[in-house]
Design goal:
About 25% of the residues are buried. By secondary structure, the protein is α+β, with helices and mostly antiparallel strands. The radius of gyration is 13 Å and the shape is elongated. It comes from Paraburkholderia hospita. This is Transposase.
């Protein structure tokens, strides 16, 4: 999980391992969560499947920043 501060919000980028077949390399589902103080403001849901946990987390953070920019 990655976190960052952006325009007064705390952003979380999540990566969830998607292991469909034990013989295949896993992929990661990405999502984002936006918080202000201790309250959840918005949650993305699954944004897609990514090859690495870093890509999934980055996609979650990008979604969070875009949501804030469009609702600011």
């Amino acid at each position: 999980m990655q976190t960052e501060k952006y325009r007064g919000y705390t952003l979380w980028g999540h990566a969830i391992l998607q292991q469909e077949d034990i013989l295949r390399r896993g992929r990661f589902a990405g999502s984002g969560t936006i918080m202000r103080d201790t309250k959840v403001v918005e949650v993305s849901g699954v944004l897609g499947a990514f090859e690495t946990d870093e890509e999934a987390q980055s996609a979650g953070l990008s979604w969070c920043r875009a949501w804030i920019d469009s609702h600011g």
